[in-house]
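Worked example 2:
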Amino acid sequence: MVSSVINFLSFLTLASNLLVGAVLLSWGRSKKFLQKKGVLISFAVSLLATVGSLFLSEVAKFTPCLLCWYQRILMYPLVIILGVALFKKTRDVAYYVLPLSVVGAIIAAYHYYLQINPQALAPCSAVGVSASCTGRPFTHFGYITIPWMAFSAFVVISLSMFSILCSSRRLSGRGSRFYQKRLLSSFFGFCHLLLGFYLEIGNWNLEFWLRRD
């Protein structure tokens, strides 16, 4: 059962990575869809990520490390926030969710970096805090680990919230073009960083399989 659930979560992560790439390549069309369904998508992703993390710790018995707890702190409240927003049909939720999801993505990316570069920083267990932050209970498709799952979930939520933010009235008036440009430049800067991170992971994955052979 545990292996089947992990395989399912890994497949969903892989699918989300491919969808994120497709969204970025066709942002004009994808933005309109995310503006309509962004809250629902984000709620579903945050709920699945929360249930999945609890399954991995309580059923699969994988001990969460310090960075895992930081990511949980940022992910778990999103279920309630987005659930209420979905029920109340409010769109201002993006202002509250986006900061949490972006910070969560950064922490998850850093956690993943520690996994593929264990020498970058001493693991959490070295200072007696928790399980090792560099430990990898599993690796699927050559690159998917628990932090990468969290990173993928935070990225999907961030993209959804950003699309909703672009459609808000505060950013749709003529006098707010300056803020629109700043927001767009920040967003594409984040996308550039994300693309670079994907490419770095691809290089590491290639080196991993070459060393394995």
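Confidence is low (pLDDT under 50) at residues 206-213. The CA atoms of residues 194 and 200 lie 10 Å apart.
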